[in-house]
């Protein structure tokens, strides 16, 4: 046996701390590390949660744009999710890129095994660079089949317009149509035209609207939507109330964008974890 020179610490049979809430993440893999499952994992770690990532799709993309993707076969996705569900107490499910109508149906099959578990839906339809991550019918299928079972969806305004089938609709108009399908809706304001501020609007089923305003940052970002939805899923898994969870997730996401870095030739990547992890 190889001796690595490690100290011989005594083995303890007691856990040092309670387990962190587990969030099952169903999303695509981004090889640039800016978005997708890596964003989910980092954002959930920052909330004090454990990410259980199940791959739904493989993408060819960088910080500039996406050039191709392949949705995995249903059996592979089901096998990943069922392995997690059989082994861990899932506290929340976060959806990202699905890429096909078949994958929407696959998510419904998975959620049948998790009655009462909150579902947070980030309707990923396009990459930050504008490239499509699914056909138009994917958005329709998500709206009609997944939204009714979700606690909240977190589209940006272009995604909300696709989902609401209102190409030039305002956030309010899109929300009015989409709230017929989902309990709560958070439409992010990064694509708004206000030069100094971003207005993120939380639409509640009771008809009330909460606006969360933050200073607008320069530049564009790869993975900001994944970061927001995952941190929100983490806050809900920890038991925080919805409005408090939205505020916490928005505050955290803004800080990751403020401290973002540019590892490639394209968009900035949110810094979701501190530099010093020691």
UniProtKB/TrEMBL annotation:
Pathway membership: Cofactor biosynthesis; thiamine diphosphate biosynthesis
GO cellular component, one term: cytosol
PANTHER family registered for this protein in UniProt: HYDROXYMETHYLPYRIMIDINE_PHOSPHOMETHYLPYRIMIDINE KINASE THI20-RELATED, PHOSPHOMETHYLPYRIMIDINE KINASE
EC number in record: 2.7.1.49
Domain (Pyridoxamine kinase/Phosphomethylpyrimidine kinase) ranges: 30-267
Native source species: Phytopseudomonas argentinensis
The name this protein goes by in its record: hydroxymethylpyrimidine kinase
Protein's UniProt keywords contain Transferase: yes
Transport is among the record's keywords: no
GO MF assignments: hydroxymethylpyrimidine kinase activity; phosphomethylpyrimidine kinase activity
A Gene Ontology BP annotation from the UniProt entry: thiamine diphosphate biosynthetic process
Domain of life, per lineage: Bacteria
Keywords: Kinase, Transferase
Gene3D superfamilies to which the protein is assigned, alphabetical: 3.40.1190.20
InterPro entries in alphabetical order: HMP/HMP-P_kinase_dom, PM/HMP-P_kinase-1, Ribokinase-like
